[in-house]
Structures are given as structure tokens and as C-alpha cells.
Design a protein that fits this description.
Elements (H helix, E strand, L loop, with lengths): L26 H22 L6 H8 L3 H8 L2 H28 L7 H16 L2 H13 L4 H29 L7 H21 L6 H17 L4 H7 L12
Length: about 250
């Protein structure tokens, strides 16, 4: 299956919002209502795109009043920002989990193998159909709504860089990496490992996971060529070819 395969989201379940005696929804009901609104809005944004999705359509599909949607999110941009923030949290969760797993792994595991495991998770969540669709919408709306682009950068890219940099700090402490600035190293790593694949997916190019992983592994080797620590350099250095004695 290609990385840009379409995933169908289940329709939001129909629920009645419980109300307190004063007529307002209870705290639990309000939370459920907001979750339902975000789920419905996410599905509509993915199915129709930003421009073709209206707050009226979201309110009707979520079975809430229009004033409720407007009072909660202000306008469509505010609703899109809320949807985007929730989606970014979903995308970053696998990266954080992979980094935590590698932090607790045995120190004798080759650094290349550790980075491949993280790279594989990154390919899955950055090149999946939903991530690609939202990336396109953010790019299209960045000029008109720079605050949406800022949210994507601060909540998505910068947090991914920070998570990767913390993992690199751990590798530097172990002597597995030799870099002066782990933040810059994290930015380079993210870009060379999944940047090209994500861009191609955003452009609509169908990419097979097997081919994408092959490229990811090659990119990691190139990255490590200039970032291996002293111990790994000795371990991975090619053995000198013995010279043949002359017969003369």
C-alpha cells in the first residue's frame, strides 16, 4: 500500500448532550460535545478541504447549535487551529514513544539501528494520508492566516526537533554521537530522513513504504557519516586491506 492511501474516518456517533438543571451542559457533556465537534470538523476538513468546509456544516453534522460553535471557536480559522493542534499531538506521539523506547534500550545497540527505528515511526506519521492532507491545507492557508502556519511550526516542527534533540543529547552522553549542537543535528536529521518523502507525498506522488524506508536507511547512513562518536567510528571503520609483498 502506498503512503498516500486514503483512510476513511468513522462517522461521529449520535449522542444527546446531557444538561444540568440550569439548562447548561454538564462538564462531562461539554467535553464530549467539544470532542464530537473536533472529530466532525476533522472529517469535514479532510473530506472537503479548508475552503469548502463551513462552520454551519460542522454545526449541522455535529448536531449542535451554530452559536455554540461560534462562541467556542470564534471562526473557521479558530476551529481549524483546534483540529490541527489535536492532529499534531497524534502525529508526535509515535515519535515521542519511539525516542523514549530508544532512551531505555541497551547502550550496546548500534546507533544506526536506533535511528532506523525512530525513522520508521517518523515515516508512518509524517507521510500518512491525514498528515499530508493537513500539510497541504496549512501551506495553502499560510499566507492568509500566518498564525495557523505559526501553530504548525511551534506545535509540530519545533516539538519534533526538541524531542529528537533530547534523544541526541543522550547519544552524545554515551559517546555514540559527536555533534556540537544537537538541535541543529535534529533539524538536519528530520529533514534528510523524512523531508523528501513528505514533500513528495504532499505533491501527490504515490510512494511505496518499502522504497521510502530504503531511502530513509540511506539517509541515516549519510547523516551518521559525519556524526558518529569516537567509539562508533572505531567500530564501523573499514579494516585496512593488507598489502601484498612484492615477489621481486
Amino acid at each position: 500500500m502506498g503512503l498516500t492511501a486514503t483512510r476513511t474516518r468513522p462517522a461521529a456517533p449520535r449522542r444527546e448532550v446531557a444538561k444540568s438543571r440550569g439548562g447548561r451542559p454538564t462538564k462531562t457533556a461539554a467535553i464530549e460535545r467539544d470532542q464530537r465537534l473536533i472529530e466532525v470538523a476533522t472529517r469535514l476538513f479532510l473530506d472537503r478541504g479548508f475552503d469548502a468546509t463551513s462552520l454551519d456544516a460542522v454545526a449541522e453534522a455535529a448536531r449542535v447549535s451554530k452559536p455554540t460553535v461560534y462562541s467556542r471557536y470564534g471562526d473557521k480559522r479558530g476551529l481549524f487551529a483546534a483540529v490541527l493542534r489535536r492532529e499534531i499531538e497524534r502525529w508526535l506521539a509515535p515519535l515521542s514513544a519511539a525516542a523514549e523506547t530508544q532512551l531505555s534500550s541497551a547502550s550496546n545497540i548500534p546507533v544506526e539501528q536506533r535511528l532506523v527505528e525512530i525513522g520508521r515511526e517518523m515515516l508512518t506519521f509524517t507521510c500518512g494520508p491525514d498528515a499530508v492532507a493537513f500539510s497541504r491545507m496549512m501551506t495553502a492557508q499560510a499566507i492568509n492566516f500566518p498564525d495557523v502556519a505559526k501553530l504548525g511550526k511551534e506545535e509540530g516542527w519545533l516539538k519534533a526537533v526538541a524531542t529528537t534533540a533530547r534523544f541526541f543529547d543522550h547519544l552524545v552522553a554515551q559517546g555514540a554521537l559527536d555533534v556540537d549542537d544537537t538541535t541543529i543535528a535534529a533539524e538536519v536529521f528530520l529533514d534528510v530522513v523524512v523531508g523528501h518523502t513528505h514533500r513528495m507525498a504532499t505533491f501527490g506522488t504515490a510512494l511505496e513504504l518499502k522504497a521510502a524506508e530504503k531511502r530513509m536507511r540511506a539517509a541515516i547512513k549519510l547523516f551518521l557519516a559525519g556524526a558518529l562518536g569516537p567509539a562508533d567510528r572505531v567500530q564501523d571503520a573499514p579494516k585496512p586491506t593488507p598489502r601484498r609483498r612484492s615477489s621481486r
